Amino acid sequence: MDLGLRGKTALITGGASGIGQGIAQVLAAEGVNLAIASRNPDPAVIDALRATGVRCIAIPTDVSQEAQVVAMVEQAITALGQLDCFINNAAWIWRQPVTQIDAAAWSNTINTNLAACVWACREVAQAMIARRQGSIVIIGSTARFTMAYGEALYRLSKVALHSYMQNLALEMAPYGIRVNMVTPGHFKTRMTGNIPAAVEDQLRGLIPAHRFGQPTEVGNAVALLLSDRVSGYTYGADLVIDGGLSLQPLPLFAADEIYSLNLPTSHTNKQIRV
Ligand SMILES: NC(=O)c1ccc[n+]([C@@H]2O[C@H](COP(=O)([O-])OP(=O)(O)OC[C@H]3O[C@@H](n4cnc5c(N)ncnc54)[C@H](OP(=O)(O)O)[C@@H]3O)[C@@H](O)[C@H]2O)c1
């Protein structure tokens, strides 16, 4: 299906690695011209995106700095002519147990994961309101639903981001500007790169689909939400892309028990034990 995105423009933060790169690849394949912002956008990634035939510029930016965020949006609009789409994706995890959280981890997390989005959306929204059109997707995390030791600050930032997304959606809707969230589960990227293999195996076991996601699978979800043709009446939605990770079952029945009931030979008189 033609999503109707060809010739549109998009700014993606953190778009040169991991999930952001997956989003950029999908949008480039849909014919979207791109601005990629991060502290050190990999030139090879930018070249590869250009090789697909779209325009792609890199905007070196530290999104934890408000002034740099303002300049980033201005530069993207100047270079691309206008901004049809904004994807707030850049984030990082500073792991500390709750008894040791320090001011540096707090300000790094809040500035990079939350304030950056608030500043960027403020600037982007002003430009979009002037044109009475635009679409924004904020990347969340299933960290909102599942806790993890040492990751309280990251989770806090993603919970806040979801609330902010809904309020932004509310305030932008009268102008025809749609704001939505895509919430990834677990993906192998730089951010999750230091997880030991044995822990990864355990983690995979918790995912009903029994595999980690591919960054382009988040990209596909972002493209659907950006598309007015597909999602023209979708405001403030949260699309979870997690292979079922957030559907954690209580241990009432074993998965094997259900699988055996679903085997072709198991039609007659089989019940879940009570
Ligand atoms: N991986 C997962 O399992 C997972 C799960 C749920 C949600 N997510 C979310 O997905 C998004 C992307 O994460 P990822 O997993 O793809 O990790 P990643 O590959 O490490 O990407 C993070 C990106 O953010 C950029 N970034 C970090 N700090 C920045 C700063 N201060 N200024 C500008 N850019 C900055 C990085 O670029 P530079 O280093 O060049 O600045 C990088 O491109 C994040 O919002 C994350 O919370 C990831």
How would you summarize this macromolecular structure in one to three sentences?
The protein has nine helices and seven strands, in the order βαβαβαβαβαβαααβα.
Structure description:
The chain is of the alpha/beta class and 274 residues long. The protein has one domain (9-248): NAD(P)-binding Rossmann-like Domain (Rossmann fold, 3-Layer(aba) Sandwich). Helices cover 43% and strands 14% of the residues. It has helices at 18-29, 43-50, 66-80, 103-131, 152-172, 197-206, 215-226, 228-231, 255-261; strands at 9-13, 33-38, 56-60, 85-88, 134-139, 177-184, 238-241. A 7-stranded parallel beta sheet has the order 3-2-1-4-5-6-7, with helices on both faces. The radius of gyration is 20 Å and the shape is globular. The model has no long low-confidence stretch (mean pLDDT 95). Bound molecules: NADP nicotinamide-adenine-dinucleotide phosphate. NADP nicotinamide-adenine-dinucleotide phosphate binds at residues 13-14, 16-20, 38-41, 61-64, 89-92, 112, 139, 141, 184, 186-187, 189-192. Residues 13-14, 16-20, 38-41, 61-64, 89-92, 112, 139, 141, 184, 186-187, 189-192 line the site of NADP nicotinamide-adenine-dinucleotide phosphate.
In terms of topology, how is this protein built?
Blueprint: E1 9-13, H1 18-29, E2 33-38, H2 43-50, E3 56-60, H3 66-80, E4 85-88, H4 103-131, E5 134-139, H5 152-172, E6 177-184, H6 197-206, H7 215-226, H8 228-231, E7 238-241, H9 255-261
Parallel strand pairs: 1-2, 1-4, 2-3, 4-5, 5-6, 6-7
Bound molecules: NADP nicotinamide-adenine-dinucleotide phosphate.
